[in-house]
């Protein structure tokens, strides 16, 4: 029996637990980064028998708590950064400001591969409370929406949920996260801001190899 088959059997068992089952299903489905376990579909099944709002709220809460693992992975990853990298990461955190919470919220609100942004948020030591509030808000809204729409329009959910991610899409998501994390570590963010203000995005792209330490600027 494959892991996926075992997971489906576990889902069937947890569905029998009703509201508590919706929480546990979503928690387990979100626990492992980049492993797309289909936890949204059981919400549809549960919402046909139970109150959609409670099912969605508990499912969203479970899903957001499961995603804490991605944030924690980022926090541990930071331990391997050099002092100069940590300094640049702290500077990046200071300029991301309120947009960090907005980014987390948007990735939680949509079926986007949110680990791409959640792990880097842990790397830059983005405030855990802000992260969780934005993460939880997005997951709850998404789950409640799925529960209500799924109750009455189940046939549309196959298009919306998009849970059939294949190995290629997972690999692409992992590669993007790794590249993004490497850029976070190596980027001289203070120099980045200076170049961006003086020469705009084009100047940043031209000097990108130097900004991430791949090439030293030649002395004139």
Instruction: Tell me the span between the first and last alpha carbons.
Output: 66 Å
Query: Percent helix among the residues?
Result: over 70%
Number of helical stretches of at least 4 residues: 12
- How much of the sequence lies in strands comes to under 5%
Describe the global form: elongated
Q: List the uncertain runs.
A: 159-165
**Count of discrete domains:** 1
Radius of gyration: 20 Å
Largest sheet: none
Structural class: mainly alpha
Give the mean pLDDT: 75
- Let me know the number of strands: 0
Q: What string, H for helix and E for strand, traces the elements in order?
A: HHHHHHHHHHHH
Can you give keywords for this protein?
220 residues, mainly alpha, 12 helices, 77% helix, 0% strand
Any chance you could write out the topology, listing elements then pairs?
Layout: H1 3-15, H2 19-31, H3 40-47, H4 52-66, H5 68-78, H6 83-96, H7 99-109, H8 115-123, H9 128-152, H10 154-161, H11 167-186, H12 189-211
């Amino acid at each position: 029996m494959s892991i996926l088959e075992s997971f489906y059997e576990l889902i069937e068992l947890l569905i029998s637990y009703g509201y508590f089952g919706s929480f546990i299903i979503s928690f387990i489905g979100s626990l492992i980064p980049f492993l797309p376990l289909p936890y949204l579909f059981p919400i549809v099944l549960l919402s046909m028998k139970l109150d959609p709002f409670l099912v969605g709220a508990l499912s969203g809460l479970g899903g957001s708590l499961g995603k804490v693992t991605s944030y924690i992975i980022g926090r541990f990853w930071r331990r391997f950064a050099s002092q100069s990298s940590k300094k640049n990461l702290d500077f990046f955190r200071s300029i991301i400001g309120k947009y960090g919470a907005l980014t987390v919220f948007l990735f939680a609100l949509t079926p986007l591969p949110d680990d791409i942004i959640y792990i880097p948020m842990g790397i830059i030591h983005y405030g855990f409370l802000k992260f969780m509030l934005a993460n939880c808000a997005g997951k709850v809204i998404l789950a409640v929406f799925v529960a209500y729409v799924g109750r009455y329009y189940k046939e549309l959910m196959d298009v919306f949920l998009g849970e059939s991610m294949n190995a290629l899409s997972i690999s692409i998501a992992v590669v993007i996260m790794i590249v993004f994390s490497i850029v976070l570590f190596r980027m001289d963010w203070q120099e980045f801001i200076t170049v961006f203000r003086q020469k705009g995005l084009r100047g940043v792209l031209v000097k990108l190899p130097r900004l991430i330490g791949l090439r030293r600027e030649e002395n004139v």
